[in-house]
Structure formats: structure tokens, C-alpha cells
């Protein structure tokens, strides 16, 4: 019952209850006097007393006192009952609310504020409980974010140290004359170049990660010809794979005039992150990475397949989560910040597409992602 309704009901009861009880009292007294008069009338007495008027006045005073006492008792009883009824409806939720406020003040959010009723105070308590839930969710998200940030710093620090140490070693080898032939110098320089590329990629991932968290990814959408765009991407990837001794097989099964609406730079980042992941876990002496472009109705499907070590079935559902790494031992040759595939997922979701993977241990992994085709709406 709403507080306003309780007050109106209480006000009405404070008027009606005393009136009813007072009326009942008058009726009882009148009935008693009538019975006494009836009894007295059965005895006919012809004696007229001089003090009769004094006796009547005394009886009136007694009746008035009785009525006043009765009215006072009725009013006090009614006021106490109504006051207690209204007080309990206000005090009970307020006590719970005060206790809940004290818990939050002390930093304790692991409690439940349970309140029955539908008055204003109960609604206030329910709103307070909703606020507690949101505060708890916010606190848990903050703890998780702090943990992720610490893990990211740890990952980046570890993975930057590895290539820096390698670069330093190779530079010292060149300076000390260890690389004493043109072939050795060329090999050392190529290794240094690859390691600096790894560092550049890690720094770019860190920068992009900060933009993801603040939803400030700079997208520039435009119409892209599927054949031309992915052919260029394959050519770029092929040059990098060639330096690593990995073969690239590219196949386009899409017609010449098919287009997609996408951000060319960010889709390149998607392909680069997937290829980098494939390179990282390549365990075959003759590595092969295949890129296939297919037309699947309203979407363009891109498949990137490798013959690397594969991913265990238990890890497959989590590979697109931030900081998830199947390489729990953190082998230095397989570094990475653990956010590459989560960036892939975020970019593709922002493009209205999706990404998924299939894998078999010891055989390899296939990464799939789709982009919606550009279709012109005919003018009527």
C-alpha cells in the first residue's frame, strides 16, 4: 500500500474508529439506564423526595466522566494503533536501508536488500538494491580490467624484451666480426629486420587496444573491389612469408565486380593478425598458409588455413577472448600480447561480420571471417 494511501486510511480510521466506539459506548450506557429504569418502574413508589434534582445532577456528572474517560481511552488506543501501523511501514524499510548503506560505506557489496510491499519506501529499497547490483558489477569489471591491464603490461614487457635481446645479440655479432661473410651479414640483417617488425607490431597492438577500450577505433568505410583488394593483401603477406620460408597459396573464387563496404586498413590488420598467429605456431619444416576468398550469398567469406600445430578443442571457444593464450608456458619463441585475435573479433563485429575457427591438433587451423557484400538498391 502506498504511503499516501496509508496516511489517508489512517486519517479516516482516526475519525471513524473513535466515532464507532463512542457510539457503541453511548448505546451501552443508554441500554443499561433503560434497563435500570424498567426495573425501577416495576416498583410503584408514591414518595416524592426533595433531593431528586441533586441526585439527577450527580448521575449526569458520573455519566459525563465515564464518557470522557471512554473517549480518551478510545482516542489513545486509536492513535497508538494507527501510529504503530504507519511507523512500522516506514521504519522497517528504513532500518534495512540504513544497514545496506552502512555495508556499502564499508565496501561490502555482497549482500541482498530484500523488501516486501509496494509503497514508496519499498520502491526506494528496490532501487537501492538495483544500484548495489550495478555497483558490484562495476567493481568486478574494474578488478577484471586492472587484472587484464597488468597482464597486458607483463605480456608486452616480456615480448618486447625477447626481440630486443635478439637484436642486441645480432648487432654485437656484426660489430665483433662474428658475421664475417656477406651471407652471414645478410642473414643477421634480415633477422634484425624481422625482430624490429615484431616490436613494431606489438606496439601497434598496444595502441590499438587502448582505442578498443575507449571505443575510439578510427574507421573509414568505403567500397572495396574484392578481387583487387584481397590480391593486394595476399601480395603483401606473401613477401613477409617468403622471408620466413613459408609458402603462400592464394585462391579467389569471387567474380570480378563483387564489392564490400569496409575499412581497408582495418581489414588488413585482421589478415595480418591472423597470419601472425599462424606464423607464431607454425611447427612444420615446410610451412604452408592458404588464403581462399569465397562468395556465400550475401557475404564474402575469407578462409585462412595453416598447417601448424593446431588448437586443442578445449581452447578453441576461447581463442578470441582478450589475453587468452593456449601457450600457457609462455615459450619466448611464441610471444604475443594475447590480444591479436580479440582485435580481429572486435573489428569484424564493427563491420557487421563475424569470425570463427576450426582446428585439428597436429594438422592445422582454419580461420574464417565474413563481410557483407555491397548491393545497390534499385531506384523505383
From TrEMBL:
<keyword id="KW-0418">Kinase</keyword>
<feature type="transmembrane region" description="Helical">
    <location>
        <begin position="67"/>
        <end position="87"/>
    </location>
</feature>
<keyword id="KW-0067">ATP-binding</keyword>
<dbReference type="Pfam" id="PF00672">
    <property type="entry name" value="HAMP"/>
</dbReference>
<dbReference type="InterPro" id="IPR003660">
    <property type="entry name" value="HAMP_dom"/>
</dbReference>
<keyword id="KW-1003">Cell membrane</keyword>
<dbReference type="InterPro" id="IPR036097">
    <property type="entry name" value="HisK_dim/P_sf"/>
</dbReference>
<dbReference type="InterPro" id="IPR005467">
    <property type="entry name" value="His_kinase_dom"/>
</dbReference>
<dbReference type="GO" id="GO:0000155">
    <property type="term" value="F:phosphorelay sensor kinase activity"/>
</dbReference>
<dbReference type="InterPro" id="IPR050398">
    <property type="entry name" value="HssS/ArlS-like"/>
</dbReference>
<dbReference type="InterPro" id="IPR003594">
    <property type="entry name" value="HATPase_dom"/>
</dbReference>
<keyword id="KW-0902">Two-component regulatory system</keyword>
<dbReference type="Pfam" id="PF00512">
    <property type="entry name" value="HisKA"/>
</dbReference>
<keyword id="KW-0812">Transmembrane</keyword>
<keyword id="KW-1133">Transmembrane helix</keyword>
<keyword id="KW-0472">Membrane</keyword>
<dbReference type="GO" id="GO:0005886">
    <property type="term" value="C:plasma membrane"/>
</dbReference>
<keyword id="KW-0547">Nucleotide-binding</keyword>
<dbReference type="InterPro" id="IPR036890">
    <property type="entry name" value="HATPase_C_sf"/>
</dbReference>
<feature type="domain" description="HAMP">
    <location>
        <begin position="88"/>
        <end position="140"/>
    </location>
</feature>
<dbReference type="InterPro" id="IPR003661">
    <property type="entry name" value="HisK_dim/P_dom"/>
</dbReference>
<feature type="domain" description="Histidine kinase">
    <location>
        <begin position="155"/>
        <end position="375"/>
    </location>
</feature>
<dbReference type="GO" id="GO:0005524">
    <property type="term" value="F:ATP binding"/>
</dbReference>
<keyword id="KW-0808">Transferase</keyword>
<protein>
    <recommendedName>
        <fullName>histidine kinase</fullName>
        <ecNumber>2.7.13.3</ecNumber>
    </recommendedName>
</protein>
<dbReference type="Pfam" id="PF02518">
    <property type="entry name" value="HATPase_c"/>
</dbReference>
<keyword id="KW-0597">Phosphoprotein</keyword>
<dbReference type="InterPro" id="IPR004358">
    <property type="entry name" value="Sig_transdc_His_kin-like_C"/>
</dbReference>
<feature type="transmembrane region" description="Helical">
    <location>
        <begin position="6"/>
        <end position="29"/>
    </location>
</feature>
Amino acid at each position: 500500500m502506498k504511503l499516501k494511501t496509508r496516511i489517508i486510511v489512517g486519517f479516516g480510521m482516526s475519525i471513524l474508529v473513535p466515532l464507532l466506539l463512542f457510539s457503541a459506548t453511548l448505546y451501552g450506557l443508554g441500554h443499561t439506564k433503560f434497563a435500570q429504569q424498567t426495573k425501577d418502574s416495576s416498583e410503584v413508589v408514591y414518595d416524592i423526595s426533595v433531593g431528586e434534582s441533586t441526585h439527577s445532577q450527580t448521575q449526569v456528572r458520573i455519566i459525563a466522566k465515564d464518557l470522557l474517560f471512554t473517549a480518551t481511552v478510545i482516542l489513545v488506543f486509536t492513535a497508538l494503533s494507527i501510529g504503530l501501523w504507519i511507523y512500522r511501514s516506514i521504519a522497517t524499510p528504513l532500518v534495512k536501508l540504513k544497514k545496506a548503506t552502512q555495508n556499502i560505506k564499508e565496501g561490502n557489496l555482497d549482500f541482498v536488500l530484500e523488501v516486501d510491499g509496494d509503497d514508496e519506501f519499498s520502491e526506494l529499497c528496490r532501487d537501492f538494491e538495483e544500484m548495489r547490483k550495478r555497483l558490484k558489477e562495476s567493481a568486478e569489471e574494474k578488478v577484471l580490467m586492472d587484472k587484464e591491464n597488468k597482464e597486458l603490461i607483463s605480456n608486452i614487457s616480456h615480448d618486447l624484451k625477447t626481440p630486443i635481446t635478439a637484436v642486441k645479440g645480432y648487432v654485437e655479432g656484426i660489430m665483433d666480426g662474428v658475421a664475417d661473410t656477406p651471407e652471414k651479414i645478410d642473414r643477421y640483417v634480415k633477422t634484425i629486420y624481422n625482430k624490429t617488425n615484431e616490436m613494431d607490431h606489438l606496439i601497434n597492438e598496444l595502441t590499438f587496444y587502448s582505442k578498443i577500450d575507449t571505443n575510439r577505433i578510427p574507421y573509414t568505410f568505403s567500397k572495396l573491389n574484392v578481387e583487387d583488394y584481397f590480391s593486394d593483401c595476399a601480395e603483401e603477406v606473401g613477401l613477409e612469408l617468403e622471408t620466413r620460408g613459408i609458402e603462400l597459396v592464394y585462391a579467389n573464387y569471387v567474380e570480378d565486380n563483387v564489392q564490400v563496404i569496409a575499412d581497408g586498413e582495418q581489414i588488413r590488420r585482421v589478415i595480418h593478425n591472423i597470419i601472425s598467429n599462424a606464423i607464431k605456431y607454425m611447427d612444420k619444416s615446410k610451412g604452408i598458409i592458404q588464403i581462399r576468398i569465397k562468395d556465400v550469398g550475401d557475404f564474402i567469406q575469407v578462409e585462412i588455413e595453416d598447417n601448424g600445430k593446431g588448437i586443442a578443442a578445449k581452447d578453441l571457444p576461447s581463442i578470441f577472448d582478450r589475453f587468452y593464450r593456449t601457450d600457457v608456458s609462455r615459450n619466448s619463441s611464441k610471444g604475443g600480447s594475447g590480444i591479436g585475435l580479440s582485435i580481429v573479433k572486435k573489428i569484424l563485429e564493427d563491420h557487421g561480420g563475424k569470425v570463427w575457427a576450426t582446428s585439428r591438433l597436429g594438422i592445422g587451423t582454419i580461420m574464417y571471417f565474413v563481410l557483407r557484400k555491397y548491393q545497390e538498391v534499385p531506384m523505383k
